[in-house]
Amino acid sequence: MVRKKIGLIGGGNIGATLAHLILQRDLGDVVLVDIAEGVTQGKALDLCQASAIDDRAGSIIGTQDYGALKGADAVVVTAGVPRKPGMSRDDLLQINSDIIRTIGQQIKQHCPGAFVVVVTNPLDVMVWLMQQSSGLPTHRVLGMAGILDSGRFRYFLATALGVAVQDVKTFVLGGHGDTMVALPRYTTVAGIPLQEWIDQGKLSSEQLNDIIKRTQNGGAEIVNLMKTGSAYYAPASAALQMVESYLFDQKRILPCAAWLSGEYSINNMYAGVPVMIGAGGAEKVIELDLNADEKQQFTSSVQTVQKLIDDLKTLGF
After folding, report:
1. What is residue 89's predicted lDDT score, i.e. its pLDDT?
2. Contact criterion met (CB below 8 Å) for 122 and 177
3. Residues 181, 19: Cα–Cα separation, whole Å
């Protein structure tokens, strides 16, 4: 059987964590690409030795050569400058745009048949730029955001309610930033609507609002604690879910930054929505019946993304 080939562009914490997860799960062979000389080679050697200890068969190579991505089935792009304390995701716009445009051109040249997941911030704009610069079909270029944001929301809710996080199901939509839209109305705990838990006094409306705000600022909270870095374990796990669903045609419905062509009354741009991911990439956008308040929040979030795209265009992208 031909093994899957997974390209990881960016040899920082997210890329290296992803590589480790992929090898541990034996999902395929890994190519870890970064412009920093020696970094990916060193991490690849370390991971090869870890695989020997773990009795795993997968291989990994570290390189500065994008040509090594030839024939990759899936590519996850984490390259870019991470946030520092006091910075917003949007502060990274210009510097990371230069990086993503270059990577998009390299993907177009070396692995135009790949399924591409973008993790670089500001996420929604970077996935738009990746699709534009690579020329890949929109259904094969997605952004990782909603899974991460939903995971944070689930964790905070589970902790507040004192229940297993596995029993909390929810979605977070919109842009990956402080305008993201949490959906308590579509949230259940062991199949029970969240509102019933609130009605029973298990969670107050004030606690819920605080949890939503903490979710919206989830990345900044970690950046402020770490001082010299940003989140990487959770983003890596989230990106891996998307890659697995594509490689194994799982048809999972996951909140991702997906291309909208009229869904949610949005045209020709990326936004965080539930999407079915299978062998065809983003096979179907799932439209939720949003109420007036949810629609207003979602529209406002998307407008924030559109403004950043407009800013990018004025910079010549």
Report:
1. 57
2. yes
3. 31
Cα angle 243, 232, 50 (rounded to 5 degrees) comes to: 75
Q: What is the pTM of this model?
A: 0.95
List residues with catalytic annotation.
Answer: 176
**Which residues of the chain, if any, have pLDDT below 50?**
none
Calpha distance 259→17 (Å, rounded): 27
Query: What's the pLDDT tens digit per position in 266-307?
Result: 999 999 999 999 999 999 999 999 999 999 999 999 999 999
Rg (CA), the chain: 19
What is the per-residue pLDDT across 114-131, written as a single tens digit (0 to 9) for each?
999 999 999 999 999 999
